[in-house]
């Protein structure tokens, strides 16, 4: 939701060059990525990249031309929702805060239609019927049922996937080398490894 929709709407509201310039003007922070050359040149984002972008976005859009009060309220409500959803422990009180943040987002999301920043290939889109926006309502029931959001994070699995793929490739290369060497010892070096 954040990168797929909100960042596109913010870019349309503020302007790509202005947004990049405001990211470049941010003071350096230790522990998060600093976007010294802006964000428009990034074509692919990781989970950590999203989190770093989320750390910077509110100060970047505060006071920017094109950032009307409704834009700031909608963005702030969505960021509150994202951060509350990431709490390692959830209670009825935090779920109520999550519901309030989502309610505030829904109260202010129409600004992106009013200022013309919710666009598609055919121009301005005059509705907010987006599956990801509707899916946000499921979080209030998913968290009590499935546990906190860190319980179903895919980032750890992606890291392990990269590590295990490298191990599998090394294993397959060694296996193929063994087959070739056995064939060479048998005098069948001219045959493919699959036929040995």
Walkthrough of the structure:
A two-stranded antiparallel ribbon has the order 1-2. A hairpin with a 2-residue loop joins β1 and β2. It is 61% helix and 2% strand. It has 2 domains: 2-152, no CATH class; 155-195, no CATH class. α4 (69-85) runs antiparallel to α5. The longest helix is centred in the last third of the chain and has 31 residues, at 155-185. With 196 residues, the protein is mainly α.
Number of strands: 2
The biggest sheet amounts to: 2 strands, antiparallel
Helix content: 55-70%
Strand-residue fraction?
Answer: under 5%
Instruction: Output the helix-strand order.
Output: HHHHHHEEHHH
Strand line-up in the sheet with most strands: 1-2
The unreliable regions are none
Q: How many domains is the backbone divided into?
A: 2
Q: Which structural class is indicated by helix and strand composition?
A: mainly alpha
What is the gyration radius calculated from CA atoms? 24 Å
In round numbers, the mean pLDDT is: 80
Distance, first to last CA: 53 Å
């Amino acid at each position: 939701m954040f990168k797929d929709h909100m960042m596109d709407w913010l870019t349309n509201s503020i302007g790509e060059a202005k947004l990049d310039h405001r990211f470049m003007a941010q003071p350096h922070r230790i522990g998060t990525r600093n976007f010294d050359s802006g964000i428009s040149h990034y074509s692919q984002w990781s989970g950590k990249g999203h989190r770093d972008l989320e750390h910077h976005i509110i100060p970047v859009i505060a006071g920017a031309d094109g950032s009307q009060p409704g834009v700031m309220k909608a963005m702030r409500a969505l960021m509150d929702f994202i951060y509350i959803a990431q709490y390692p422990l959830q209670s009825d009180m935090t779920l109520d805060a999550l519901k309030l943040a989502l309610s505030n987002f829904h109260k202010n999301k129409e600004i992106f239609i009013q200022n013309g920043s919710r666009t598609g290939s055919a121009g301005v889109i005059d509705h907010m019927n987006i599956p990801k926006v509707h899916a946000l309502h499921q979080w209030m029931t998913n968290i009590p049922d499935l546990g906190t959001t860190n319980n179903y994070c895919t980032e750890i699995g992606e890291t392990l996937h990269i590590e295990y793929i490298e191990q599998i490739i090394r294993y397959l290369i060694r296996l193929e080398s063994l087959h070739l060497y056995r064939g060479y010892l048998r005098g069948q070096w001219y045959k493919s490894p699959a036929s040995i």
